[in-house]
Amino acid sequence: MSLLLQAYPVDSVSQMQQTVNLAPVQEDTNLLELLMRGGWIMVPIALLFFIGLVIFVERYITIRKASRRETGLLPQVKSNVLSGKLDSAIAVCRSSNSALSRMLQKGLTRVGRPIKDIEGAIENQGKLEVARLEKNINVLGIVAGIAPMLGFVGTIFGVIQIFRDVEIAGGIDIGSVSGGLYVKMIASASGLTIGILAYIGYHILNMMVERVILRMETDAIEFIDLLDEPGS
Question: With a cut of 50, which residues of the chain have pLDDT below it?
Fold first, then answer.
């Protein structure tokens, strides 16, 4: 102990104790309070988060419902077509009320015309069904691009305000500057996080739509091959 006192004078030791005692105590801040410190820019960022969440949940449920495979639809349509019961086949499609059933129904209403006309009718109906599945998905892409930029804008405005306060005060207070930057970086972190989540959701929905399209195309080709068989 004496060696320590010799190495550090009493004044230095007392100053170190004061420094330790004067160290700022960190405040316990919950997530909501922390986000509210980001400033006015957090309002449009929160709005983008809400829009993106609603669109993702709504599209996910819709696409998931459309991706359910109706195992009995195509066999029933095939059986009725081979038996020459077109009206029954159309009735089966109407009762199903799915993307594939609407495509098959459009093709069945064209039976008797050239196969190219039937293919064109099914293809056009398929485009409409895909457009319904992809509705509002591009909005997620917009959110993914705008949210990080809004966060960055909030940080820039915050830095401008900090330096303006420094200019008015006529001096630099490291505590206020670092604290202000800490608060303003919340906007950038929030915008970037929401942008990443929207980007991930956008690609998840697109992959789900692609799987549905592939299955519809496969079933449509099988149906056209059935109509194109001799004697059908």
Answer: 1-8, 10-26
Q: Taking the CA atoms of the chain, what radius of gyration do you get in angstroms?
A: 32
Nearest to 62 by CA among 143, 126, 130: 130
Give residue 144's identity as a one-letter amino acid code.
A
227 and 81 Cβ atoms separated by less than 8 Å: yes
CA proximity to 220, closest of 128, 107, 96, 89: 107
Share of the chain above pLDDT 90, in %: 20
Number of domains in the chain: 1
Q: For residue 137, give its domain range.
A: 30-228
User: Is residue 99 in a domain?
Assistant: yes
Instruction: Compute the mean pLDDT over every residue in the chain, rounded to the nearest whole number.
Output: 77
Do residues 186 and 38 touch, judged by C-beta distance below 8 A?
yes
Q: Is 40 within the bounds of a domain?
A: yes
Residue 19 maps to a domain: no
The gap between the terminal CA atoms of the chain, to the nearest Å, is 104
Q: Tally the C-alpha atoms within 13 A of residue 167's C-alpha that lie toward its C-beta.
A: 6
In a domain, 24, yes or no: no
pTM of the full structure: 0.73
Q: At what angle do helices 137-169 and 174-228 cross, to 10 degrees?
A: 170
Q: What share of the chain is helix, strand, coil (3-state, %, to 5)?
A: 80, 0, 20
Cβ contact 147:191 at 8 Å: yes
Task: Give per-residue pLDDT as tens, 65-75.
Answer: 887 776 678 88
* Residue 41 tokens, joined: 């820019």
